[in-house]
Every structure is written in structure tokens, then in C-alpha cells.
Amino acid sequence: MELIPVKEHIEDNKEFTDDPDCIESVTMSVNFYKRIGFNPPWICYYAQLENQLVGCAGYKGKPVNGKIEIAYGVFPQYWQKGIGTQIAKQLIDVALETDPSLIITARTLPEENFSARILRKNNFKLLGPLIDPEDGEVWEWEYMK
């Protein structure tokens, strides 16, 4: 599994804008950078496995107060193949290689779902519900080192 960075400007992401699985999310990523800044490695990525783009991933901004939030998704044709677990692991590894003291968090819908299973497989603990300003009620998770 390899994480391939989404570049700051849309015109620099031709390999993604030409891919039907990526066209919507690459535009969202570039627009996200315009709002929060482009701060590698705290950026958006596509996950590549055996020369195929299989999902997307990223950090919801740079660390704040020693915390970073991860987010990830798997393209539908690759669901239920363990890819989400691998993508989350890659995000964890990049974060800890960059700053081993970081607290890594994630948020999911407030229900048992595939994302909850992915996080548990990656040693995240459910902290409980909270209200996210953009997403409403969510469950917050924290990585246990």
C-alpha cells in the first residue's frame, strides 16, 4: 500500500482528475487546502495497491494541541477486502513517523459500521459521542499506542 499525495493545485493532479473514481474527491481535496492550508504531510492522499487506486485518505488539517484527526475511504469496488484497515494504518504510520508524541483521532457515524471495525483493528478506542460543527453527532476515537 502506498499513499500518493494530492497536490495543492487542481492542474497539478492530472493523474487523479482523469480517473473517474477520483474526480469528485480530488476537487474536494484542493478546495479543502484553500480553506485550511497545504501543510505536508498533513494533506490528502490516494491509496494505491498493486498500481490501482483503491481509496482516499488524509488528515483533517495539521496537528492542533498535539492532536491530529485521520479520515479515509475505500472505493466501492474494493470494499470488504481489508483495504480500509491498511489505509488507516498508513495514516497512523505517517503521523507517528512525523511526530511520535501525537494523539491520533478519528470520527465516525454514531453507529457500529465498517469504519468502527477498521478503527478497532488499528487499536483505536471509542471515546464516545460528540457534536461536530460540520457533521452533527459523531463518535470520537483515539489511537492507543
Automatic annotation (TrEMBL):
GO terms for molecular function: acyltransferase activity, transferring groups other than amino-acyl groups. InterPro entries: Acyl_CoA_acyltransferase, GNAT_dom, N-acetyltransferase. PROSITE patterns: GNAT. PANTHER family: ACETYLTRANSFERASE (PTHR43792:SF13), GNAT FAMILY, PUTATIVE (AFU_ORTHOLOGUE AFUA_3G00765)-RELATED-RELATED (PTHR43792). This is RimJ/RimL family protein N-acetyltransferase. It comes from Mucilaginibacter gotjawali.
